[in-house]
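Journal club side-thread
Mid-discussion, someone asked how the predicted structure for our own chain would compare to the paper's figures. Pasting it here so we can look after the session.
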Amino acid sequence: MQDTPNSQTNNSNEPLEKIDASAVSPAPARCVPSGTFHDEAHNTETSSIDTMPSLEELLRQAELTSAEHHDAWLRAKAETENVRRRALEDVARAGKFAVEKFATELLAVKDSLEAALANENQNAENLKAGVELTLKQLSAAFEKSHLVEISPLGEKFDPHKHQAISQTEAEGEPNQVLSVLQKGYTLHDRVIRPALVIVSKAK
């Protein structure tokens, strides 16, 4: 049996019933309140803004931080000034009392000289012994203060430590110290007075 034109069948070869499109009612549209999405977005923005600090708060925090930094700078400046002032005072005291130890050593020398002059009955031998003792005291005071004499007899002439007064022809190598007219002195390896010497020259 042949199917008639325009006829529709299902899997059971039974004719399908035509559906009248006008009889099908459309699904009711979901009603969304006006402004709902706008309100939600607005509420989100408002919540974010509420959690952000205000300009006044930011300014207040910046002023507090600036004040703290300024106070720290003032304290550091004051401490630096105090350190500088103490350093200057220490230098001034060091310069003022630098010779205190040396002066104390010289007091013993002065005492010995006064004792020698006070003894009117001493003979020449005793006077010489007293002078020698006083010289030893003075030399000890020099040594404690790192004041060392320069007596370069027989040494090679050193322009940094010696001052040549004249030259004399002599046997041997030239530029040798033949005579010391005045001893020199160094203080902590610094020459404070050169030795006055006579130097040899070749014949």
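Post-session note: Residues 55-96 form the longest helix (42 residues).
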